[in-house]
Design brief:
CNF1/YfiH-like putative cysteine hydrolases; 6-stranded mixed sheet; 5-stranded mixed sheet; 6 helices; 19% helix; alpha+beta; single chain; 242 residues
Length: 242
């Protein structure tokens, strides 16, 4: 099991990219920390009202109003793209050739609706992204050990063309593997397994992370972010063991 840092988690594969900043927030981190964190100095956080939708925003400047949707993308330095989670899967996309990034909120509805397909297609159009060269980073989410779902969810995934192996049967119940389902989407886009990296933690199992299912009265969310550094920005993070 991953032991969360007091602030946010990073992945070494993304830490090696000198122009990039990223992180997966823990339960100890709050929205105000995005502004207080010295290592994020100079960044403008962009936080949406998330809807479990397929709405994606391309940012060419800081928005003047609070956006509604579930994915953000940009090639503009200084914008910090944020998605909030407490069991859903946060996915960060990095186009190294074109210096473009995206942050995608993938709950079961977004996954079933193929939100990652739409985000990658939008990056192709906007930035000339080659999907085969993208790096995709998965943050902590609820694991298949804990994510029991009803027959309506299984039927929705079947109708969307997902294979049965994104579910596990245990005790007569179906358990969804959000990571596996999104890996299937990336596979179909030509993104190789070597370009998919994951924090691997289950939010329901790890007490330092937030889980809507485990803590139903908990309203807080974890803040997951990615951005393109301006010159001179400091390198952040507490690296996860691999």
């Amino acid at each position: 099991m991953v032991k969360p840092s007091p602030d946010f988690l990073t992945l070494p594969q993304l830490e090696r990219i000198p122009w990039l900043v990223h992180g997966f927030g823990t339960g100890a981190w709050e929205e105000a920390d995005l502004d207080r964190e010295e290592r994020l100095e100079g960044f403008m956080p962009v936080i949406m009202r998330q809807l479990h939708s397929d709405t994606l925003h391309r940012l060419e400047a800081a928005p003047s109003v609070r956006l509604e949707g579930d994915a953000l993308m940009t090639d503009v330095p200084g914008l910090l793209l944020v998605v909030r989670t407490a069991d859903c899967l946060p996915v960060l996309l990095v186009d190294g050739a074109n210096r473009a990034v995206a942050a995608v909120h993938c709950g079961w509805r977004g996954t079933q609706g193929r939100m990652l397909d739409k985000a990658v297609a939008a990056m192709e159009v906007a930035y000339g992204t080659d999907p085969r060269a993208l790096v995709a980073a998965f943050g902590p989410c609820i694991g298949p050990c804990c994510y029991a779902v009803g027959p309506e969810v299984r039927a929705a995934f079947h109708d969307a063309g997902f294979p049965d192996d994104v579910f596990y049967e245990r005790g007569g119940r179906a358990f969804l593997d959000l990571r596996a389902a999104n890996v299937k989407l990336l596979d179909s886009l030509g993104i190789g397994r070597d370009n998919i990296v994951s924090a691997g933690a289950c939010t329901h199992c790890a007490p330092g992370l937030l889980s809507h299912r485990r803590d139903k009265d908990e309203k807080r969310r974890m803040f997951n972010f990615i951005g393109i550094r301006r010159a001179g920005a400091k390198s952040p993070g507490s690296t996860l063991p691999q």
